[in-house]
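Write out the 3D structure for:
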Amino acid sequence: MIVVLAGLITALEWAAARPTEAQGRTQASPNAALTPGNVVVYRVGDGVASLNSNAAAVFLEEFTPAGSLVQSIAMPTVVSGLNRRLTTSGTSTSEGFLTRSDDAQYLLVPGYDAAPGMGSITGSNWSAINRVIGRVNASGIVDTSTSLGDSLAGQNPRSAVSTNGTDLWLTTATAGIRYATFGATSSTSISSSPAGLRVAAIAGGQLYVSAAAGSINLATVGSGIPTTTGQTITNLPGFPTTGTPYGFLFADLSGSVAGLDTVYLADEGGQVQKFSLVSGNWVSNGTIALASARGLAGTVSGTSVTLFVTAGSSTTTLRTLTDTSGYNAAITGSLTTLATAAAGTAFRGVAMAPGNVPTNTAPIINSVAPTIATEDILFTYNATMTDPDGPGQTWSLLGTHTCGGMIVPATGVFTFTPAGPVPAASCVMAVQVCDGGTPNLCGTQTTTVNITAVNDPPVATDDSRSTTVNIPLNVTGASLTSNDVDADGPVLNVTAVSNPINGTVGLAAGNITFTPTMNYVGPASFEYIVSDGSLTDTGLVSVTVNGPAFLGSLNVGSGESITSLTNDGGLFQQMNAGTISGNVTVNITSDLSAETCTHSLNQLVETGTGGYTIFFQASGAARVISGNSGTALINLNGADRVTFSGLAFGPGGLTFRNAGNAPTFRLINDASNNSVLNCTVEGGNTNPASGVVFIGSGPTTGNDGNSVSGSIIRDRTDAAGIPLNLIFNDSSGGAGINSNTVIANNQLVNFTQTGLFNGSAENSTINGNTI
């Protein structure tokens, strides 16, 4: 029996109680095998009793990377064969930093050979309370036979580390770092200075420790993995010399830096830190805030690092974050809580579960990629691969890919359409398939795709041209194709013309002739076909048929180029669409007996200076202009300086006759300085507010300076009906409307109401008129 007195036992009693080698090693308790890739946390306390400085039970809790608890493995609390008890102080936060051996086969677990509840364990002599290095293999078998009884006072065990489960190292509070072998009962000092070592780890064939002692923060222990005394602990070059570091993880993230180039460190001061080795010195890459961060472990996949961190004071947690920034880049990611220690327990260190992670094999792309694509035609490549590790791969395009397009991540179907009009001669199709394993491995394939160009059709650009009434428009095919485009650059030709509107069109020897409809003024058009020799497009030519430029004299009558005054294509329509300059004489060479009164004579566009005049006269004989209009036979709608004269063949040389119930002459919309001179004007207008000659009025416009003189104004002699009024000068629009009107020396014949109505028109001259 071992008798505990004041928390201590004598060496004699301990020797008597210690089992011999012959008693053998037994498994402390049956546990399930641990799963590689899972996370194991050193938990102190059974959750029943509150934690204090006395010895407390230790459990290894296995979690999935997502935080699901898999199992709790209890460390022995009673001696069984060579297996010793393994407990730890309930309140010493610098203890309990387990690690995974460098060969990934074992967990190394530091502690005391003390019964739960035993007091004063941290200050005890090792010979009285041995320091234990527990070893747990991937099958979950616990071995606590390594129980060190050196004659050392105090020295709480902080972390244990191993290369292979046989060579063991233990860090202590003030005795530095010590070496032992599996199953040993004593240890050897590797380095006793400085004191205050925290966590040990082996990475890249080198033994490292963290410490908060003098100028040591994260340091090498000697060179390589020493097992003899007298080693020097040296801070990493460029690394800080202050702080409260605990767990750390080295990684190789850059192919351009030899060996390990990145380290992550849990600092109790409240940070997870990242450093990179740059030009031989370790430089900071930033921090992630985390209060009382202590334990740290993780996995590396390519340039992505997933960390697992234990932290906290009164309540401890297991957190995780993934840093995807890579070598010498600011740490990224945010912390996620995976588990929280229950009341009466606390988390200390953390390590990845032992065991051989299945070897990942890179997928191999086994399909042969096509190498020919055609412009404007969909190119499809059904990439395939083999992977002995099974399905679950993802396809993507590499950075060297230049063909554009897209690849379906799940199936590897790549498509793109070479774009015209002038595609590149070739492009690079670079695809990869990655298995998402640990590590993430990829197969790649790069293929040069040659692109066959095709003939692109020309694109016709619409054109516009203009001509004058009755004047054919001649256009060269080259002038029409000059603004058409064909990205392939061939010579373009006009091969056909069609669909003329308001005219006819023909093509001869590459030249186009558009002939407007006789006497037509207005918009017209035709279409043409442009060809590059094999492909075509259709263009539209809009043609404006302008009225003529009127100057000098012109004839209107049967057989003339202009055959009417008011009809479509007649003189009024052409003048409205054309221009006028100087004094223009219009010779009426025949009776105009079929006037439709469709067009008025509007305010005209004048070219030149000095003011135009238009003088209508009979030619060859007296002429009659007649029609049947419900508006007016001759409608001067804003026209100025127009004279209708019958003097050439005596009084009445021009006769104007309207068979409709409306004025024969109507002047409106500021038609000014117009004259009806020595004409016969006949009509049967029975509108009481109008007349055979009607000078209209409006609220804002008047018709000034107009005259009717020396003329016969009468009823129609060829039809029944007598007008109410003969001359009606309307001034109802107000003062100043229709002023300066001259009505003189006219014969007013046959009316029923008024021969001449002048209203209140100002400054009118009315004299010599007879009834």
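The chain is about 0% helix and 45% strand.
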